Amino acid sequence: EYLELFEDQTRLSIMSNLGALVKVDIDTRFNLPYEDRDMLDPNDMPKRKIIRDFLIGISNVRDMIISSDTLEIIYDLSRCEPIPLFRNLSSLRANFFHNRWEMLPVFLESCPNLKSLSLSFSKNPGNQILLGPHRLPPTLEHVKVVKAMKGDVVAFTTLATYFLEKSTILKEFSFFLSDFSEEEESVILTKLLALPRISSSCQVVVHR
Predict the structure, then answer these.
(1) Quick one: which of 16, 145, 163, 179 has the fewest CB in 10 Å?
(2) Model-level pTM?
(3) Per-residue pLDDT tens for 134-152?
């Protein structure tokens, strides 16, 4: 079964039979406001329970599309309590808008059997990227940047460096040169060719 969940589309508190889902597409803030960065109140136990129960309910899915808004709320929850493991998740696409990147490795730690990761960026979220002791899934084989952050070579090469240096069995890191200018293309290709790769079988694939 397949679920698409967008903001205000449905009430999470009355959803049932989530365990039968195979794929989910989630873009929701769980009815939390946009006004403040720190939107999930650690003392709001009913809201935490709704989010936790929903995550537990979908924890058996194999394929997930998730927005950075949703990742941000999950990141906030992770600072209050452990988030559920997604042991069956093998394919993940994360769509980033204006949000910070630091929530991504936190969520990836809950996906121990992830094989394929796709990333899309509508805006450049800055360079606060993927720092800290977080570990990538040891099963990760493919990383594809479907849409890169335009006009920021540093942010993109930092992203590439993170996966090439930390993904132990990575087979392919791919991206589209059409996201960059001709001048940026040359800089990116030079930097990527010089990057060390922890996986000896990893290929950098460039799409034009």
Answers:
(1) 16
(2) 0.88
(3) 789 999 999 999 988 777 8
